[in-house]
Structures are given as C-alpha cells and as structure tokens.
Amino acid sequence: MSLYDITVQDRAKNEVSLKKYQEKVLLIVNTATGCGFTPQYPGLQKLYDAYRDQGFEILDFPCNQFANQAPGTDEEIHNFCSGRFGVTFEQFAKVDVNGKGAAPLFRWLKKKKGSLFGSGIKWNFTKFLVDREGRVVSRFGPGVTPEQIEASVAALL
Question: What is the CATH number of the domain that holds 68?
Fold first, then answer.
C-alpha cells in the first residue's frame, strides 16, 4: 500500500483520495486547538505561504485523543483556526491517531516512520514530512517548530 491508496475525510465528511497530492511535498500534522503547541499554527501558515507555489501542502488533521484538546465540530475547529490564525491550508475531519480506531493514514505513517519511543504518537502537533514520491522522510515531535523544519521542507522542493 502506498500513501496514494489512502482515502481521508475532509471536514464536510467527503472522501478525499490522497492521490490528489501526488507529486507534492506534504507535511501531515495532527493538531488541536486547545494545546500548548497550538501557537505553532502561525508558523505552519507562514511555511505554507512560503512554499505552496512550489508544490508544498500541509494536511491538518485535528485530534481530540490527547486530553480532549480538540473539542468542537470540524467546522468549529476550522473557524477557530482560520479566524484566529489565518489558516488557509487543508484541514480535514477530526481523527484518532492511536489505538484501534486510528485513522488508516496515521497507521500507515507510524508504520513508515516510528519514533525513538515506539510507533505511537505521543501528543498533538506531531509532523510527518513526505517527499514528492509519497515516502515519509522525516517525523518531527510536537516540540519541533515549523521554523525548525523549514530547511527540510525547502530541500525536498
């Protein structure tokens, strides 16, 4: 199975094939609106603004698994992020990233790029960097800011 065989749901619950993102560099992030890392949204937007015209996309998947830090509906989350932080990159339906109910995308990502502490995702704002061929090239923990990964993104473009 490749990344492009996976289907996800947009925030309106429509099925979206990740084939839509073939030949793009992707940063896939599990996010939350009430997290200590939520202030990373402006950095993510700045990264997106800097590189989207070169084939870069950010795929944002809200996740409420960690201390219920992503409450609300998918639309409420989107309105919060776009209104407060000016987010314009793709925001998808809320997902689980760990456990039996983990979204297929995050099961695949964790299989491709585990962490030093195992394959589970430890918290919100874990980031997976994917090259134009659909390979996961890096995994960044929540404390790694968008500014710290900019060089990695630029190198893939």
Answer: 3.40.30.10
